[in-house]
């Protein structure tokens, strides 16, 4: 009964203070909600077991340099060697390095336009190794998985439901994939993602699965273009499996000595590594998730500190009431329950609102984060979110409810009556309020420093010239796969047909085509000057049509461009990048020099082009060569079409929408060929800075919320002090203190607390540059894996945070200071 009366009384008190109640509820909802959302993501990825049978027996096997992040990255020949010689595992699974786009023709779905789906190639044991069973039909057979074996396809549950309406007769039907007829042998169970081992956060789940058919003739066989998983035998541990891997290292090196010519920058060699599969899946995001979790926890802490400060002020106003209740026989436990009732109501209300915030925030985070979340489903974490909400609400109640109650209850009845009647300020109350404000300022400055650093990093990357134009340029991509496009002549004919059609469209100024767009995937090959084979190194190659460089705005510095006269039966030519010339032919002309590139043959340099950034805006331009698409043979054309989309680059007049014209041109050339992508070139560039943009947005949101709470805390503390010290200020002014002196005195109180908090925050922020570097380097390619933020950028970021904190503190302090300066001495004295 008494408890119910306490809650009724607390509810009436909160209803009488709508501003305080709304502020507290909103603060708690945002603080608890965002913290819960981040915790649900972190728990799902880092703590919960993988959704497969006996997940603790699943491991990743990689062939990579020491100290690299755990992964499943594997080389084809290494995978074959381990399958044959390793005995610690009951089964192995090998897959392509990622999903690739394939064309699903209209006949596959019974009508309509062609469209693209994602495909993943896997070995026959990949899905059984995970402990999966087909929803319909069967998985691949050994015969289907051998090199050159018969065609077969598995279909994802989602594609089966959406494109084929869950037709139970799908098994045994033939679908057209990349122009070829392929029988469907089974349907995967619901919820299996195509990107089982991470990868790009925006990549779609695989809809079609085909046999890997790994063999030495695979173009990527000798590169790290695969992923490898395995299931440990029942009696084998991961350390035992790793020991066997190390024992096999020497035997592998004897059979494949040429692998060990490739070394890391520090001179180390590739090694076999075994990790828990879950560790490998989240290897690229673990650090970033933990840092974000720490950031939102800091935001929640600031929210609790702020509410504790506001509740302290409210408790002081009730000190006379509490003293009277004590005098009338109420025990300390009765008063404690009474005071905690208000905090509990606020915590419950904040938690309920926070649950909606958490659900929305988790879904938004998964949708927009440039982080691969391989097995997180926000919709399946509702109960877990509710439990976390209850736990955080309980902690918040203790943080902002128990502290003020204890401050009031530890004092005697006479003290509370004396302070309430005299409007004096208790030393204990004042000290507690100042400590809370200093802590808020320190945390706010730390978060603001992180936000400023990520914002500076984002703006710095956006200011880097990519080496080509982005304005008034659109790109359209198609995937040229299948038997038809294994023929170089057929590929060239289709590309030229589309180019001719587009060139005649109104508003098109220039158009060209390329395999491997800048800042997108490109082909890496071994290359060297023809007369200095000892200088062989990894080079980038782009296969282009005439007018490609003019369409994209890549400047030609010397020599000539690719022309229509460059055909398969004419001397093979190439255009070198600036960096290629500097590295291979320093202090001499590159024109007329000859190079060898992979198995494509020998080429003569006829031009030098401006450098472009190939993998990210932060990497240094590498050795790059442009080769005419018409001078590629069938074997090489099959390889580049299998790995890369063909991209049409269109320079156009402003305001012209060419999407329909592009679709029509491609449909005219091949009715079964869908447009995979049509977008502005600026969008391609923007995607390369998605990570710093996302993290700058996240940190700015956290910092802004924290700044708001801190300003409320400073304003609330000083306002409370002004009210409590009204008589003292009146006496000072009656004895001759000027209004400006009173204003300065109160203002400097707020600025002094801010200065102390800033000093503490500066110490905590010293680690911020390394932390931000660690996060962003996970998503932005640089040669040495680090961004190395310039010292000037760090100083500018710190200065920005410092000035903003001082400005906010000055504004929050100025309002109570003006109120203090406007006090009438006579009225203040009469109020006593």
Automatic annotation (TrEMBL):
One GO cellular component term: plasma membrane
Primary location class: membrane
InterPro entries according to UniProt: ABC3_permease_C, ADOP, MacB_PCD, Macrolide_Exporter_MacB
One Pfam family here: FtsX
Domain MacB-like periplasmic core span(s) in chain numbering: 21-248, 471-663
Protein name per UniProt: Duplicated orphan permease
Membrane spanning stretches: 295-317, 338-371, 383-409, 435-459, 694-721, 742-768, 797-817
Annotated signal peptide: none
Cellular compartments annotated: Cell membrane
Superkingdom, taxonomy of origin: Bacteria
Family (UniProt): Belongs to the ABC-4 integral membrane protein family.
Record keywords: Cell membrane, Membrane, Transmembrane, Transmembrane helix
GO molecular function: transmembrane transporter activity
Bilayer disposition of the protein: Multi-pass membrane protein
ABC3 transporter permease C-terminal domain location: 296-410, 701-825
NCBIfam families for this protein: ADOP
């Amino acid at each position: 009964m008494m408890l119910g009366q306490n809650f009724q009384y607390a509810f009436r008190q909160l209803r009488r203070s709508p501003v305080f109640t709304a502020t507290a509820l909103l603060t708690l909802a945002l603080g608890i909600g965002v913290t819960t959302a981040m915790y649900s993501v972190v728990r799902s990825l880092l703590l919960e077991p993988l959704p497969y049978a006996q997940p603790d027996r699943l491991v990743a096997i990689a062939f990579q340099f020491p100290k690299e992040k755990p992964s499943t990255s594997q080389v084809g020949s290494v995978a074959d060697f381990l399958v044959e010689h390793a005995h610690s595992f009951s089964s192995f699974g090998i897959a392509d390095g990622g999903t690739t786009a394939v064309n699903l023709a209209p006949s596959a779905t019974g009508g309509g336009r062609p469209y693209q789906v994602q495909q993943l190639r896997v070995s026959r044991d990949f899905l059984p190794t995970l402990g999966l069973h087909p929803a319909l039909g069967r998985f691949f057979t050994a015969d289907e998985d051998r090199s050159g074996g018969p065609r077969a396809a598995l279909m994802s549950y989602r594609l089966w439901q959406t494109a084929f309406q869950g037709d139970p007769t799908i098994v045994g039907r033939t679908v057209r994939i990349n122009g070829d007829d392929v029988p469907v042998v089974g349907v995967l169970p619901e919820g299996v993602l195509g990107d089982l081992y991470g990868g790009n956060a925006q990549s779609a789940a695989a809809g079609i699965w085909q046999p890997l058919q790994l063999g030495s003739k695979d173009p990527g066989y000798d590169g790290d273009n695969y992923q490898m998983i395995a299931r440990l035998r029942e009696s084998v541990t991961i350390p035992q499996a790793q020991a066997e891997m190390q024992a096999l290292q020497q035997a592998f090196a004897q059979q494949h000595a040429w692998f060990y010519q490739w070394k890391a920058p520090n001179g180390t060699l590739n090694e076999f590594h075994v990790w828990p599969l879950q560790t490998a899946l989240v290897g690229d995001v673990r650090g970033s998730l933990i840092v974000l979790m720490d950031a939102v926890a800091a935001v929640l802490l600031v929210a609790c500190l702020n509410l504790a400060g506001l509740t302290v002020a409210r408790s002081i106003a009730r000190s006379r009431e509490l003293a009277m209740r004590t005098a009338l026989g109420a025990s300390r436990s009765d008063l404690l329950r009474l005071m905690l009732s208000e905090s509990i109501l606020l915590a419950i209300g904040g938690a309920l609102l926070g649950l909606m915030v958490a659900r929305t925030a988790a879904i938004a985070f998964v949708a927009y984060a440039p982080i691969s979340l391989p097995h997180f489903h926000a919709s399946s974490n509702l109960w877990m979110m509710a439990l976390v909400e209850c736990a955080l609400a309980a902690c918040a109640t203790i943080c902002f409810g128990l502290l003020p109650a204890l401050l009031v209850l530890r004092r005697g009845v006479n003290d509370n009556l004396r302070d309430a009647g005299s409007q004096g300020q208790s030393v204990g109350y004042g000290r507690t309020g100042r400590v809370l404000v200093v802590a808020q300022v320190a945390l706010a400055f730390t978060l603001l420093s992180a936000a400023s650093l990520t914002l500076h990093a984002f703006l710095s990357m956006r200011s880097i010239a990519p080496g080509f134009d982005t304005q008034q340029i659109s790109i359209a991509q198609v995937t040229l796969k299948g038997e038809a496009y294994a023929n170089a002549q057929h590929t060239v004919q289709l590309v030229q047909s589309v180019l001719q059609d587009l060139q005649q469209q109104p508003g098109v100024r220039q158009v060209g085509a390329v395999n491997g767009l800048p800042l997108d995937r490109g082909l890496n090959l071994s290359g060297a000057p023809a007369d200095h084979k000892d200088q062989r190194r990894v080079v980038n190659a782009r296969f282009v049509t005439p007018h490609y460089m003019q369409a994209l705005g890549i400047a030609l510095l010397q020599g000539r461009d690719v022309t229509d006269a460059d055909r398969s039966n004419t001397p093979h030519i190439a255009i070198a990048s600036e960096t290629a010339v500097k590295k291979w032919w320093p202090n001499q002309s590159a024109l007329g020099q000859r190079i060898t590139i992979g198995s494509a043959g020998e080429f003569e340099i006829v031009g030098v082009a401006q450098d472009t950034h190939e993998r990210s805006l932060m990497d240094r331009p590498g050795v790059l060569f442009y080769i005419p698409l018409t001078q590629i043979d069938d074997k090489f054309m099959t390889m580049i079409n299998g790995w890369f989309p063909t991209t049409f680059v269109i320079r156009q007049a402003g305001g012209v929408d060419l999407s329909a014209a592009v679709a029509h041109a491609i449909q005219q050339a091949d009715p079964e060929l869908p447009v995979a992508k049509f977008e502005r070139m600026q969008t391609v560039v923007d995607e390369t800075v998605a990570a710093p943009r996302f993290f700058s947005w996240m940190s700015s949101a956290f910092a802004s919320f924290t700044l708001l709470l801190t300003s409320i805390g400073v304003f609330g503390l000083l306002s409370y002090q002004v009210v409590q010290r009204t008589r003292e200020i009146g006496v000072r002014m009656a004895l001759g203190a000027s209004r400006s002196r009173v204003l300065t005195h109160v203002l400097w109180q707020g600025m002094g607390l801010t200065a102390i908090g800033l000093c503490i925050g500066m110490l905590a922020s010293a680690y911020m540059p390394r932390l931000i570097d660690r996060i962003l380097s996970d998503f932005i390619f640089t040669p040495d894996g680090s961004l190395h933020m310039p010292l000037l950028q760090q100083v500018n970021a710190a200065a920005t945070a410092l000035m903003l904190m001082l400005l906010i503190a000055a504004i929050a302090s100025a309002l109570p200071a003006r109120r203090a300066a406007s006090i009438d001495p006579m009225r203040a004295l009469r109020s006593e």
